[in-house]
Structure formats: C-alpha cells, structure tokens
Write a structure and sequence with these properties.
Helix 1 crosses helix 4 and helix 4 packs across helix 6. The radius of gyration is 21 Å and the shape is globular. The chain has 230 residues and is an all-alpha fold. The chain has ten helices and no strands.
Length: 230
C-alpha cells in the first residue's frame, strides 16, 4: 500500500526511538542465538544475553520478559520456511504422504543443523510444561511452545490426510503431531551424534506406523522403508 501523502510526517524522535528499539531487539536475539547454541539452556541467563548484546538486564527484560520467551523467539524463524512449504503443499493438493515425508525430513535437517539450539528449546519447552502442567494456551505468548510452534505444519497435513481418507483417522492429528515433535526434541537431547536421516527414519516410522501402516510393508533398505532419502 502506498504511503498516505496526506498524513503528517513522522516525528524524528519517534522514528529514532523505534530504530533504536529494533536494533536492540536484533542484538538481543543474535546474542541469545549464540549463547543458547554454545552454553545451552541451563547455563544461559537473560543477564548473560544482555551483557553480550551490550544492554542492561532491565532493557533485555523489557523486550523479553522471560528466558522462555527469548528462546522461543530465537527459534521461530527456523520454522517459518517449513510452515510456508506446508501451506503451499496444502494449497496445491500435493499427496499428503509426500508432503509429510518432506516436512519431517526438513524438520530433522533443521534440528540437526541447529542441534544445540534445538536441545535448548527442548529443555525450555519441558520446563514450561512442568510449570504449567497443561497443554499450550494460545493466549500465552510467553510459552515457547506457542512462540516456536513445531507441531503446526505437521498437524495441518495430517488433518488434511485424515479428512480425505488418505490417512487413518486415529490418533487425532493434534496428538500424533505432538508425539512426533516430542520424539524429535528428545532425540536432540539424547542422540547428539544422530544424523538427520536417522532421526527422520524414526519419526516417519512412528508417524506412518500409526496412520498409514501399510507403508511399513515397503521393502526399503534392509527392510527399513524410510531409511535414507526416498
């Protein structure tokens, strides 16, 4: 939309304040990315991120009220390309097995490429779940499970497949997508040397074993239908 030429010019002080705030937020996210990726969840404090970004802890907390909000915001951009890909597949009617297979492999590659950051996110989500003892509340924008919604793309594709009859109707998409992502996150913690293909093989076996078990009869490599690239 073209700018409104009748609107009064923006106050330079307002523009400068906004620019400064955006610069500070960017510095905090970059510092958090580096620290969570090297020190991990438990050894990184918001105060450490603030110091690395060159701002006060009060400023950091003004942008991100909790460490959980910070890690969720750091990780979210890694998921956006996957969400866009899933949306495109759903819009164009791509076969759901192909779309889900690619989505799970892409998630596994992302997790492997950013393994330390994924492990930090996994611990943040576990900690937040223990604190709330409840599923994510969509209204809670401090919940890393909402800020980095790892289940969304897979859940939508499973829902489409169950609705069309391509996938078995049970378990429900919301529960199955949660199982798949929880398995991915746990493996980021306890399988540090696992390759992306190995992770994807396990996730696909669990997922399709539930809603498309006939795929497990494919010969694959050594009787493993999801081993390596399809």
């Amino acid at each position: 939309m073209p700018p409104d030429e009748t609107a009064p010019p923006e106050d330079p002080r307002v523009r400068a304040a906004r620019t400064k705030r955006e610069r500070t937020r960017r510095a905090l996210l970059e510092s958090a990315d580096a620290l969570f990726g090297t020190r991990g969840w438990n050894q990184t404090r918001v105060e450490d991120v603030a110091a690395a970004a060159g701002v006060s802890p009060a400023t950091a907390y003004n942008h991100f009220p909790t460490k959980h909000a910070l890690i969720g915001t750091v990780y979210a951009p890694l998921l956006r390309p996957l969400a866009l890909s899933a949306e495109q597949d759903r819009r164009t009617g791509r076969p759901v097995v192909d779309a889900l297979s690619e989505q799970v492999r892409a998630l596994s590659r992302t997790s492997a490429r950013h393994r330390a950051l994924t492990a930090a996110l996994a611990l943040a989500m576990l900690d937040y779940t223990a604190r709330t003892t409840a599923p994510p509340d969509p209204a809670d924008q401090g919940d890393p499970r909402n800020l980095a919604p790892m289940t969304t793309a897979i859940q939508g594709l499973i829902e489409d497949g169950q609705r069309s009859g391509e996938l078995h109707p049970f378990p429900p998409a919301a529960e199955l997508s949660g199982v798949v992502i929880n398995l991915l996150l746990v493996r980021s913690l306890n399988r540090p040397d696992e390759t992306a293909d190995q992770t994807a093989e396990m996730l696909l076996t669990v997922m399709f074993g539930a809603v498309k078990p006939e795929l497990l009869a494919r010969p694959g490599v050594g009787g493993r239908p999801f081993s390596g690239d399809d």
